[in-house]
Amino acid sequence: MKKIVALCLLTASTVSFSAASRDIYDLMYLPNAGTTYGFTEFDYSKGEIKADAGDEDITGWRLGQTIGHSISDRLSLQATIDYTNAKSEPETGADTKLKGISDPTFGARYRVVDESLRVDLLADLTLSLGDREIDGNDVENRLGGHALRAGAQVGGKSDDFQWAVTGLINRAFEATTKVKGAGKVEDDAHNDWIFG
């Protein structure tokens, strides 16, 4: 599921609120200085995850909104928040529902090379501002869990074709999970790699 969400973030549709000479449909969209822009995303998932311990059906949707501003022709800053309504039904164990507003994510994109080959440095920070409630009845709350991502995107564009490759390292900081009837579970800080 995390890989699907990451891929959706990388391929989001875009809308711009300012006239700009740069093409809004660029995979590596970076508006001209002074442009305020927004991305609205809608993802719907319905599928099955196969596993040795038992299959799991996942159904749900996510609506995300990003607002950003280009400080210069090479630097843009943005903030993202989304609303998720998803359900997981494993063959064994209890169903899980995830419903609510996400923690905010603040990001930056800096264009290092702006030629036929483009190179951008990417960074963002997710701040965990409160408990996350699952199933609406305190089955599971997540406390803490800030995350920091950094990486690069390399791509090119011609009149007929464009491509982009992204690599990020995600640093998930320590978090505590409260499980109803089972107490607290500590999640250690760890790193994940994201490619798209």
Topology:
Blueprint: H1 2-10, E1 15-16, E2 36-49, E3 56-70, E4 75-90, E5 96-101, E6 105-114, E7 117-126, E8 132-134, E9 140-144, E10 147-157, E11 162-172, E12 175-179, E13 183-187, E14 190-195
Antiparallel strand pairs: 1-2, 2-3, 3-4, 4-5, 4-6, 6-7, 7-10, 8-9, 9-12, 10-11, 11-14, 12-13
Folded structure, characterized:
The protein is elongated. Strands 1, 2, 3, 4, 5, 6, 7, 10, 11 and 14 form a ten-stranded antiparallel beta sheet that branches. By secondary structure, the protein is mainly β. A hairpin with a 3-residue loop joins β12 and β13 (183-187). The chain has one helix at 2-10; strands spanning 15-16, 36-49, 56-70, 75-90, 96-101, 105-114, 117-126, 132-134, 140-144, 147-157, 162-172, 175-179, 183-187, 190-195. The two termini are 14 Å apart.
State the end-to-end CA separation: 14 Å
Strand-residue proportion: over 45%
- As residue ranges, the low-confidence spans are 1-21, 133-142
Order of helices and strands: HEEEEEEEEEEEEEE
Rounded average pLDDT: 79
Which structural category do the helix and sheet elements fall into?
A: mainly beta
The largest sheet is: 10 strands, antiparallel
Anisotropy-based shape: elongated
Q: What is the count of β-strands? A: 14
Number of helical elements: 1
Q: Indicate the radius of gyration in whole angstroms.
A: 19 Å
Residue share in helix: under 10%
Based on the model shown, name its key terms.
196 residues; mainly beta; ten-stranded antiparallel beta sheet; four-stranded antiparallel beta sheet; 1 helix; disordered N terminus
